[in-house]
């Protein structure tokens, strides 16, 4: 099995789970035992400053908490985009290129020069061994390459159609699929 860490899962119109309707998930880990990701396009109205005040200056617009997924909604995962991805930074775990997770117990002031922006996610999306692969085979997800800025777009609500349109061809046509049409 090739790891899909760092790739995007883009919900297809065939996906029936309302937790993932028109979502874009960045896989931050994919191993034989399962997969873990965060939903990139579900912003809340809760400012990062209200939850993690010290980190709010590093948060990209919109500087709000995101719903990372239905698993452990009281936990937090922080994605960061590093300015210099080659230099090792304490508390940073690379996912792909300059993007990775960052340990929220690290003093954010010490990261100010290294971090180009963060996103904080409440909860995460998780799959047991083989579960994600079965969902992909069933047509629930498109697996696509991520661009470094995907996790940090200014308009997260536009991410699902944006990612599909840039694929071109028939995939781009899916971006215009009506949200209220059920597939059988």
Automatic annotation (TrEMBL):
GO cellular component labels: cytosol
InterPro entries named in the record: AlgH-like
Superkingdom assignment: Bacteria
Any matching Pfam family: DUF179
Family: Belongs to the UPF0301 (AlgH) family.
HAMAP family: UPF0301 (MF_00758)
Name of protein: UPF0301 protein GA0070214_10219
Organism: Micromonospora chaiyaphumensis
Organism lineage string: Bacteria, Bacillati, Actinomycetota, Actinomycetes, Micromonosporales
């Amino acid at each position: 099995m090739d790891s899909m860490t760092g790739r995007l899962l883009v919900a297809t119109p065939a996906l029936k789970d309302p937790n993932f309707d028109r979502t874009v998930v960045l896989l931050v880990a994919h191993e034989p035992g399962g997969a873990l990701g965060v939903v990139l396009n579900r912003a809340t109205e809760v400012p990062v400053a209200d939850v993690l005040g010290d980190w709010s200056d590093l948060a990209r617009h919109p500087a709000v908490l995101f719903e990372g997924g239905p698993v452990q909604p009281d936990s937090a995962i922080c994605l960061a985009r590093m300015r210099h991805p080659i230099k090792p930074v304490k508390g940073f775990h690379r996912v792909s290129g300059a993007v990775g997770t960052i340990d929220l117990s690290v003093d954010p002031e010490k990261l100010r020069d290294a971090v180009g922006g963060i996103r904080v996610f409440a909860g995460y999306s998780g799959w047991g061994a083989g579960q994600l692969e079965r969902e992909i085979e069933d047509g629930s997800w498109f697996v696509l390459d991520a661009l470094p800025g995907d996790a940090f777009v200014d308009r997260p609500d536009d991410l699902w159609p944006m990612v599909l349109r840039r694929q071109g061809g028939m995939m781009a046509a899916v971006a215009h699929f009506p949200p209220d049409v059920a597939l059988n």
